[in-house]
Write a structure and sequence with these properties.
Elements lengths: L2 H6 L12 H6 L2 E3 L5 E3 L3 H10 L3 H11 L9 H10 L3 E4 L6 H11 L2 E8 L2 E8 L2 E3 L7 E8 L1
Antiparallel strand pairs: 1-2, 3-7, 4-5, 4-7, 5-6
Amino acid sequence: MTIEAWEAGEQCKAHYLAYCGDCLASSKLRRDEAGAVWYKSDCAVQTFMEITGATYEEASTAFLAAGFRPGHGTRRDITKAVFESYGYAVTRMSYRFKLEDALRASRSSGRVFYVGGQKSRKAHLWSVMNGRQFRPMFPPFRYEIFEVTA
């Protein structure tokens, strides 16, 4: 089942129900607090939306085409490729460039970054814009910072 099928209220083939919760979960979809349907493990898609202003449909379509696997996340090389396919330049920052440096640079000069953090087997991607972090993971034991320029 796709997001479009879910939103259209199409009947699932397995249970003959519209808006089947079992099919929602097996399709790696989730419902947020507002009732919208999103893919699971879609932090790269959300980061792309925050930075570019794309809609969820545009962003998820681009990521699915590039290799995003709902429920499994997105590799950082795929995230970089999607940004570059939309005309953005992505630069991996040095290991000496810390999160505090990104926040300071974002606040003072309007630079935009995304951060890939990893804590044991869990990984997460979030954006840094206007001196603020959106959907950060605390504490990231290991992380990489990427600058995005138009």
